[in-house]
């Protein structure tokens, strides 16, 4: 994992990654692609939203991670981080830790 080869974006700002993100999540948790896309389209600047970990290799961008931030109904200042997934080929290399750190920073 090299710094600068990857970065985190909000899905609602980068809809070009919508289907790729849905496919990544579906590799971990099976669901129809159209249902997954419909769920992801509910990502907003405010909660709920989805953060994507993007890998950029020689200008080729690929979604390698996802986390979803949602409101905690009982706690207006609270946030739930869920649906955290890293591409199988990228696991155990620090990407999950990086995505969780960025998710926590965003939640604050």
Automatic annotation (TrEMBL):
**Which SUPFAM superfamilies does its entry note?**
Acyl-CoA N-acyltransferases (Nat)
Q: Which GO terms describe its molecular function?
A: acetyl-CoA binding; N-acetyltransferase activity
Q: Which domain of life is it from?
A: Eukaryota
Keywords (A to Z) from UniProt: Transferase
Q: What is this protein called?
A: N-acetyltransferase 6
Outline the extent of the N-acetyltransferase domain. Answer: 9-108
User: What is the taxonomic lineage of the source species?
Assistant: Eukaryota, Metazoa, Ecdysozoa, Arthropoda, Chelicerata
Signal peptide limits: none
**Transferase listed as a keyword:** yes
Q: Is Lyase one of the keywords?
A: no
Q: Which GO terms describe its cellular component?
A: cytoplasm
Which InterPro entries does the record match to this protein? Answer: Acyl_CoA_acyltransferase (IPR016181), GNAT_dom (IPR000182), NAA80 (IPR039840)
